[in-house]
Every structure is written in C-alpha cells, then in structure tokens.
Amino acid sequence: MTKQQLVKHEGRISILVNILLFGLKYWAGIVTGSVAIIADAWHTISDSISSIFVLIGAKVSEKPPDDRHPFGHGRAELITTIMIGIFLAFVAYEFTRESISRLLSHEQVHFGRLALFVTIVSILVKESLAQFAFWAWRKTNSKSLRADAWHHRTDALSSILVLIGILLGNHIWWIDGALGILIALLIFYSAFYIIRDSIDPLMGKKADRSIINKLKPLCSQICGESIQTHHFHIHEYGDHTELTFHIVFPSDYTLQVAHDLTNQIEMAIRDQFSIEATIHMEPRGDEQDYRPEEQKVI
After folding, report:
1. Segment among 35-49, 79-93, 178-192, 251-265 with least mean pLDDT
2. Which of 60, 93, 119, 268 is the most buried (most CB within 10 A)?
3. Does residue 250 have a pLDDT over 60?
4. Following DSSP, what letter does each residue of 145-211 receive, concatenated?
5. Which distant-in-sequence residues (6+ apart) come within 8 Å of 122 by Cβ?
6. Cα separation values, 241 from 69, 224, 278, Å
C-alpha cells in the first residue's frame, strides 16, 4: 500500500467511526443534559471534518508537478493540517463559552448508566483510532496523519475527563462545566501544536545539523578531502525535498572533472537521502563570503 493509499484508508475509517460515535455521544449528552458530553460529541465530529481535510490534502499532494508548481503539490498537506488546527481552536472556543455559561447558571447534571457506557466505548474506540493513525504516520511520515492521530488522542483524553465527571457528578454540582472548560483547553493545546508544526516548514526553518553533518563527509568521500562545501539550503515540498549547496574545487580541476564529480554526489544524495540536489561549482580562490550559520531550510 502506497503512502497516499494509506492516508486515504485512515481518513475513510476515521470519518465513518467518528460519525457513528458522534451520534451515540450526542444522544447521551441530550438525554443527560451534560455540556461536557455534548462538547465531547462535537470534538468527535470535528475529527471527521479533520479527516476530510486529510483526504483532500492527500488528493492534492499526489498531483504531479506542473508549470505553476514545478516542485509538486506536497505543501498542500501542510495547508490542510493548519486548517485542522484552526477548526480545533474554533471548537475549543465554543465549548469554553458554553461551559462558563453552565457554571454561571449553577446547573447540575445527573449522569446515568447510559453516559457511563457511552463514555467508556468512546475512550476505547478513539484510542484505537489514535494508535492506527500513529502507526500510519510512522509508515508514511505524513504530517496530516500525525495531526489526525493527536486529534483522536485528545478526544480519548477528553472522554476520560468526562468519565471522571460522571463518577463525581452526583457529589460536585460544578463538575460538568469545569470539565467542559478542561476539554476545551485540551483542544486548544492540540490546535496550537498542530498549527505551529505545520507553519514552521512553510515559513522556513534552520536546517537540521545532523543532515549537514552527513552530507559533508559524503562529498569528501566522492571528491576527496581537497574540496569544501557551504551554503546548504534545503527546500521541503511534502515528500519532495530539494537541496542546493556550493562545492569549492581545486582550481586545476577541469570543468568536465568537476561536472562528473557533482553528478556522482547528486546521485548518491538521491539514493541515500531521497533528496534532489543541485550543486553550484566554484574554483578555489573564488569562494563567496559566507557564514556557516546561514545554512537553512525553506
């Protein structure tokens, strides 16, 4: 199964299961009058919406390069992931407002066996979905799958909070409203990290030093210790990564020799790192002024 097929498979399963869980939890919330259970239900249906974003991102990301997007459409996945985070933040805001209203009105909820049963089922199902999404993320390295997995995990954690509220609800009148706020904060926390982790690659961040430390010895192995490398820039486009950097050759190397060596380096980088490299060749004595700390990823 390819990466895109696995992403789509996870998304379809998530949508189906979350719709069923939403109906069950919303019904339990209406019967008991619990804002925490209803908030938990909407948190669950938001998983379905995020999974739809995952499917859209996967569909757009697999489109081949074209004239307007010569490096492919891989960053579409980052955009859909940010949309998931924004939607989560909106859901969190709505339930914070509703929970505060519940506290101000001093409403107490009386939970029953139905709420207990539905909440336990939700915890088991949502954690199972989270484990499946995390497994698929490790297989594909898909950022939207990772976001979807954390969405499932936060839903399972929020259901655990609801379970605590059910067990204490008959003794503490404000437990339902307080748990609604806690669930909302949990959703806010998840949204923040999902958005942050997706914006970083879009904005551009410093290159991982470990990658540079692997590339330099590779160049020296092919060309010998007489060469120097600098100005490493890595450009991420989802699954597709472009690398540009400079190599300083001895001034007595012919253009043909330098060209053949750079071809070998580019093929080695492609084979070992799955990165497409473009190398600028310089004769010794004509190096541009540079600072190693300028190496970055875009």
Report:
1. 35-49
2. 119
3. yes
4. HHHHHHHHHHHHHHHHHHHHHHHHTTT-TTHHHHHHHHHHHHHHHHHHHHHHHHHHHHH-BPPPHHH
5. 21, 24, 25, 40, 44, 155, 156, 159
6. 14, 26, 11
Torsional sign, CA 30, 162, 160, 197: positive
How far, in whole angstroms, is CA 144 from its chain's centroid?
4
Q: In whole angstroms, give the CA distance from residue 60 to residue 62.
A: 6
What are the phi and psi torsion angles at 230 (to 5°)?
Answer: -165, 175
Contacts of 160 (CB under 8 A, 6+ apart): 123
Burial class (CB in 10 A: 0-12, 13-18, 19+), 21: buried
Q: Identify the band that residue 261 occupies on the pLDDT scale cut at 50, 70 and 90.
A: very high
Per the structure block, which two tokens stand in for 81?
């992931």
**pTM for this one?**
0.60
DSSP labels, 36-75: HHHHHHHHHHHHHHHHHHHHHHHHHHTSPP-SS-TT-STT
CA 252 to chain centre: 48
Give the pLDDT mean for 236-246. Answer: 78
- φ/ψ of residue 64, rounded to 5: -70, 165
Amino acid identity, position 78: L
Question: Domains of the chain (ranges plus CATH)?
Answer: 3-200 (1.20.1510.10), 209-297 (3.30.70.1350)
Q: How many residues does the chain have?
A: 298
Give the pLDDT confidence score for residue 236 in this predicted structure. Answer: 76
> From residue 122, how far is each of 19, 77, 152 by CA, in Å?
12, 28, 10
